[in-house]
Amino acid sequence: MYQNLCSMLGINYPIIQGGMAWVANHALAAAVSQAGGLGIIASGNAPTKWVREEIRKCKELTDRPFGVNIMLLSPYADEVAHMIVEEGVKVVTTGAGNPARYVEMWKDNGIKFIPVVPSVAIARKMEKVGADAIIVEGCEAGGHIGELTTMALVPQASQVVSVPVIAAGGIGDGRGVAAAFMLGAKGVQMGTRFLVAHESPAHKDYKQRVIKASDIDAVVTGRSTGHPVRSLRNQLSREYIRLEKEGTEPGELDKLGEGALQRAVVDGDINKGVVMAGQISGLVTREQSAKEIIDEVWNETEKLIRGCDI
Ligand code: TUI
Questions:
Q1: Distance 305 CA to ligand 1 centre (A)
Q2: Between the CA of residue 261 and those of 157, 209, 233, what are the distances in Å?
Q3: Closest Cα to atom 1, ligand 1: which residue?
Q4: What is the rounded CA–CA span in Å between residue 136 and residue 158?
């Protein structure tokens, strides 16, 4: 049974903000939800107490629905998965793993479950365990990525699952949203564009690095460790790639990445930190409010799809 994504989630526009660790806090999530999209608080590797407080602060700023992203590699993932039930969160997105063991609990408590997946096989698996919608993320995205591009993944996933597919990776304006619809998506998730929002807490130097980036600046490190990550090229990525070429052990390489996202997002160390961002960074040229971003992207989308049946 197809249900319109907006009515399923109680939002005005089928635009979801990506669950960016260290960036997607209560302020950004509330701003996106207030503007009619779905804001997401990213739990990343943060302790449960921090995530709980972010949820409470978000509720003070907006009555609209918002979601929480659980990064399943986090040592706190299990605790956060239970805590969101206590806090009455309406939507959960998950990344970097299989959340099957929590799905029954979430659904029993009326939480909409929307996994982020990098392949058709995992999308199928998530539909079977009860996903209400599925975010398929192409490797144009920033952060931890799979192999497939959004262009190839979205139509293949849309064809085989019957829940709504939400496209992510490489989408930064109305052209990308309209294209995603043409490929079979019923909604989009954007990360990089919201990373530079006024309400985003990312350090000003991190935002400026994204704003100044060109098309070829977003590179992938960590293919050799089994955890490929897309970030903007800098001193750290060059060092990482050099060590990877020399055949350095995955354990050694992982050490290089420890604390590196916090260093960039919070401290603004964009040379020695990891500046996670997607391939669409070259299109992101200014800071705007979350509302300006959503209004502009949706206006562009509507102009492009007028007359199309979506
Ligand atoms: O999770 C993301 N993006 C992320 S997580 C992150 S924090 C991190 N930093 C360094 C290393 C690892 C993580 C930064 N960016 N996107 C969603 C995503 N999920 N991409 C890929 C996946 C994924 C991968 C395997 C989802 C499910 C899966 O397996 C499920 C199964 O059935 O095993």
A1: 31
A2: 30, 14, 14
A3: 95
A4: 9
Mean pLDDT, the chain, integer: 96
Which 3 state secondary structure label does DSSP give 233?
Answer: coil
| Lining residues, ligand 1, CB within 6 Å | 21, 71, 73, 95-98, 116-118, 122, 125, 137, 143-146, 227, 229
For residue 67, give the 3-state DSSP assignment: strand
Q: Where does the pLDDT of residue 306 fall: very low under 50, low under 70, confident under 90, or very high at 90 and above? A: confident
Task: Dump pLDDT digits (tens) for 131-160.
Answer: 999 999 999 999 999 999 999 999 999 999
Q: What angle do CA 143, 148, 151 make, to 5 degrees?
A: 105
Q: Give residue 88's pLDDT.
A: 97
Distance from C-alpha of 288 to C-alpha of 226, rounded to nearest angstrom: 35
CA of 222 to the centre of ligand 1 (A): 13
What's the pLDDT tens digit per position in 206-220? Answer: 999 999 999 999 999
Looking at residue 1, its pLDDT comes to 45
The phi, psi pair for 274, rounded to 5°, reads -100, 120
> pLDDT, tens digit, for every residue of 58-94?
999 999 999 999 999 999 999 999 999 999 999 999 9
Which 8-state DSSP code applies to residue 38? B
Domains of the chain: 2-201+283-305 (3.20.20.70), 214-276 (no CATH)
Q: What are phi and psi of 285, to 5 degrees?
A: -115, -5
